[in-house]
Amino acid sequence: MKVGKYIFWGIFTLIIIFGLCLIFKELENYLPSESLSFALLVNFLLMFWFDVTVPKLKLKYDLSYFEVSVNERNIYKVLGIELYKKILKISGWEKFTNSKNPPLSSKIIDLRGREYLT
Questions:
Q1: Percent helix, strand, coil in the chain (nearest 5)?
Q2: Which of 9, 114, 113 is nearest to 56 (CA)?
Q3: Which spans are transmembrane here (predicted)?
């Protein structure tokens, strides 16, 4: 049953990607692909797709790849994550994603669930 779910989401993802490619090809007539607005549009569409699909798949992140390294925070700061975070707050993306999550509490199960969604 689980394999069928992954196959369904894999095929569905490919269909969505194909549809997005067609949309982007048509958008290029109005919005050049080299522009900042096109890049932001693509980024927000991909974040929206990720936000829709990941909670439904309930993936297990038990590989060592997903463990945070010591210097990872510094690397992200150098790459400009703080500016990107401000852009997301201004655009209202944080309100959209936080509306799906319950308020934080001190229970460890709630915190683990919240960490899983991030």
A1: 75, 0, 25
A2: 9
A3: 6-24, 36-54
Q: Does residue 54 contact residue 46 with C-beta atoms inside 8 Å?
A: no
Instruction: Give the span between the Cα atoms of 8 and 3, in whole angstroms.
Output: 9
Q: What is the spatial distance between Cα 111 and Cα 62, in angstroms, rounded to a whole number?
A: 17
- Burial class of 53 by CB neighbour count within 10 A (0 to 12, 13 to 18, 19+): middle
- C-alpha distances (whole Å) from 6 to each of 11, 18, 73 are 9, 18, 32
| pLDDT per residue as tens, the chain (118 positions) | 466 777 887 888 888 888 888 887 887 788 887 888 888 888 888 888 788 777 777 767 777 877 888 888 888 888 888 888 888 888 887 776 666 665 666 666 666 766 665 5
pTM for this one? 0.45
- Distance of alpha carbon 76 from alpha carbon 1, whole angstroms: 38
| d(C-alpha 18, C-alpha 22), whole Å | 6
